[in-house]
Amino acid sequence: MLTLGSLSASLFAQQTPTPPVAPAPRATLTADQATNVLKQLAELERTILQQRGTNLGSVIQKLRTAASSDAAAISFIEDCDKLVNVERKDADREEARKIEQKAELAKRNETKKDEDKEGDQAMALRMSLEYLALSLEANDAKDLSVMVPKVQAFHQAMISYGKKLHGQAGEMLMRPISGGGGGGRRGGPAMDVRVVIDAYQLDRYLRREGWPMEPGNIIRMYQQVILKPSLEKHKDDIATIWDSAINAEASFRKERLPEGEFAIWQQNEYPALRWMRAVDLAASGSNPVNGMAEMLKVIKDHPGHPSSPEWIKQLRQLVAPSLPDPAAAPVAP
Predict the structure, then answer these.
(1) Each residue's pLDDT tens digit in the chain (333 positions)?
(2) Do 213 and 227 meet the contact criterion of CB atoms below 8 Å apart?
(3) 195 burial level (CB within 10 Å; 0-12, 13-18, 19+)
(4) Cα-based distances in Å from 75 to 61, 63, 69, 102, 105
(5) Alpha-carbon distance 124 to 328, whole Å?
(6) CA-to-CA distance for 142 and 45, rounded, in angstroms?
(7) Cβ-contact 216, 151 below 8 angstroms
(8) Closest alpha carbon to 205 in 133, 110, 286, 101
């Protein structure tokens, strides 16, 4: 019994939870001490933001200088590549020679034959550098609406160069400019703007929520930046802004895609964009009835679209939400 009692006491002791350790008492400051610390923090914040703005401003200026010509863009990428893959890695002269050959190849590829096949990749590189500069500006903008005129000017430039931005050149603009890093990929693209991000350690400045990272993604830019304020506050502008978005996207696609591929885009993607416009008008416009009328028109205009059955379900749910879905009703035997 003594042995069992001892064992029971031992088990009970093991099962008893250890009392939590009391947290260390929070340091308290006097009113004068708190005021002094807050004052120092405010001064430090001003200094840090000023220094950061100066540093980023310098980088933005370098990017725009590099984007001013083909030769400047290629040389800038070459310098960044050497910094990332030679100087920082203590690589030998052979590695530097490979980078020089890659830059030289990029320059030689700007022949008429190469441009006809894969587009003007140097121009695409320059557009990517300009978009990187815009993205750095957007990172520090208190309100992204201030970027709208600059973004629209960028879109117009892309459209004006559209005939040169087909093939690989166009694909370059549809890839994110950040993510994955640009260093150390000898088998990668001849010229990659992401090596600039590695060279200048810019990744932490390219995480602005709501800012698209693909230079050529016009629709996403409109949805996330240009259209968003109107959905919330300026409902009468939604239709006009959507029209501008669709027209810009269509113009860019028409310029950079072969005729057959553009025809497929018109058949599949263009009706989907019109539907998105109509849904926004119904959900957020000043007159939801007009939005539903637009939804009906899209279905009538494109009955053969793969999404048309789903569109009918969505519109029916808006018009009569209490009615059951006929497609879901059991079939009579």
Answers:
(1) 445 455 444 544 555 556 666 566 666 888 888 888 888 888 777 777 666 656 888 999 999 999 999 999 999 998 998 888 888 776 666 666 666 666 666 665 555 555 667 899 899 999 999 999 999 999 989 899 999 999 999 999 999 999 999 998 999 999 999 865 444 444 344 578 999 999 999 999 998 999 999 999 999 999 999 998 888 888 899 999 999 999 999 999 999 999 999 999 999 999 999 999 999 999 999 999 999 999 999 999 999 999 999 999 999 999 988 766 665 555 454
(2) no
(3) buried
(4) 15, 12, 10, 11, 12
(5) 49
(6) 16
(7) no
(8) 133
Q: Are 144 and 138 in contact (CB under 8 A)?
A: yes
The answer to whether residues 229 and 145 touch, using CB atoms and an 8 Å cutoff, is yes
Return d(Cα 229, Cα 248) in angstroms, integer: 19
Q: Which residues contact 245 (CB under 8 A, 6 or more apart)?
A: 218, 219, 222, 223, 226, 227, 273
* Backbone φ/ψ region at 179: left (φ over 0), alpha (ψ -120 to 50), beta: left
Q: 157: which residues sit within 8 A by CB, 6+ positions away?
A: 127, 130
Q: Hey, CA dihedral for 246, 249, 252, 253, is it positive or negative?
A: negative
Q: What does pTM read for this prediction?
A: 0.76
Q: How far is CA 110 from CA 159, 199, 251, in A?
A: 20, 25, 25
- Tokens matching residue 162: 């559209």
